[in-house]
Amino acid sequence: MYERKIPLTIDCGLHLTKEVLNGKWKPALLNAISLGIKRPSQIVRLLPGATRRVLHVQLKELEDHGMVEKTIYAQLPPKVEYSLTEIGWSLMPIIDAMNQWGDAHRQFLEAVLSQDPRTTQVSKSVCQVYRHMAEERKKGEMKAVK
Amino acid sequence: MYERKIPLTIDCGLHLTKEVLNGKWKPALLNAISLGIKRPSQIVRLLPGATRRVLHVQLKELEDHGMVEKTIYAQLPPKVEYSLTEIGWSLMPIIDAMNQWGDAHRQFLEAVLSQDPRTTQVSKSVCQVYRHMAEERKKGEMKAVK
DNA sequence: CGGTATAGTGATAAATTTATCCCTATAGCT
DNA sequence: AGCTATAGGGATAAATTTATCACTATACCG
């Protein structure tokens, strides 16, 4: 751990919110958990671009900030589940809006972001969350057929 | 300038949006411009926590990403104005939601963020935007009286 | 036993973002 | 002439965030 040397900026609601969502994977984590993907191993599989380590660290921050709750089951091998707190849930409209805005403007955004001179490569594996949801849907349909 | 060595993550709309808003002052800049604070010098005064340099760099990125348009008046001393593009305006519901969420939970968030062991200091100058708006309101009233 | 899976952590390097400083140019004011 | 304000930019240091790698521990399966 280290100590911040630059003071936290907390002037507007904007900065407060930004601080909570500040982390490459935090919105994705909240989104995943809201969809019922709760166990660390599931989450890791869902976000192949991230390492276990980072996800763990960012989940810890979300937990410390009160957005997420962690349940540790007294089992071996270990079992852990995350869930959103009430205030965590209250963030979902923002997460959803970001998701929708990005998808709605995907074509434009991909163009401008890849024009960006700093950009050399892009990781664009179709979002695993959608794949996951599609699978769940299939399972549901199969059960329904039985 | 430098080149990114880690590929941009573009899986979900979430990541696209995050990329556009990625910068300490970008949401605040969009917010300010949407409120009619358009000239660089005004913006700098509005966000005393940031240096001219950073604001300039982040405005440039917003411009490159198509969220903001820059008008340069052929005058001396120079005059420049920023304004939101159509797609920039379409971000405002998200910015507003972030602003509102943060303000609604300010008490809670200030508490958890200052519990954070990394936090040593907090910069909490009452948001200049509000001060600015209050002044504008006063001016409006004075004119109305005349 | 050797491989799998579970969840977690420490040390350290690399990448990226912000902050600091200093400089250019022009016009108006005193 | 020296001060203000306008807008901008280069070079570089510092801070912060991510990535990498290596390790602990236990149970189940063949």
Class of secondary structure makeup of chain A: mainly alpha
Average pLDDT confidence of chain A is: 86
Topology as H/E string of chain A? EHHHHEEHHHEH
CATH architecture of chain A: Orthogonal Bundle
Report the end-to-end length of chain A measured between terminal Cα atoms: 53 Å
**Which chains share the greatest interface?**
A-B, 64 and 64 residues
Relevant CATH superfamily of chain A: Winged helix-like DNA-binding domain superfamily/Winged helix DNA-binding domain
* Assembly state of the chains shown: homodimer
Biggest sheet details of chain A: 2 strands, antiparallel
Strand residue content of chain A:
5-15%
Uncertain segments of chain A:
none
SS field, number of helical segments of chain A = 8
Strand order of the largest sheet of chain A: 2-3
Net shape of chain A:
globular
| C-alpha Rg of chain A (nearest Å) | 18 Å
Annotate the secondary structure layout.
Two copies of one chain form a homodimer.
Chain A: E1 8-9, H1 13-20, H2 26-34, H3 40-46, H4 52-64, E2 68-73, E3 79-84, H5 86-89, H6 92-104, H7 106-115, E4 122-123, H8 128-145
Antiparallel strand pairs in A: 2-3
Chain A binds a DNA duplex (30 and 30 nucleotides) through α4.
Overview of the structural elements:
Two copies of one chain form a homodimer. In chain A, 56% of the residues lie in helices and 11% in strands. The mean pLDDT of chain A is 86. Chain A has one domain (13-106, 122-145): Winged helix-like DNA-binding domain superfamily/Winged helix DNA-binding domain (Arc Repressor Mutant, subunit A, Orthogonal Bundle), CATH 1.10.10. A two-stranded antiparallel sheet of chain A has the order 2-3. Chain A contains eight helices and four strands. Chains A and B meet through strand 1, helix 1, helix 2, helix 6 and helix 7 of A and strand 1, helix 1, helix 2, helix 6 and helix 7 of B. The first copy, chain A, binds a DNA duplex (30 and 30 nucleotides) through residues 2, 4-6, 22-24, 39-41, 50-54, 56-57, 72, 75-80.
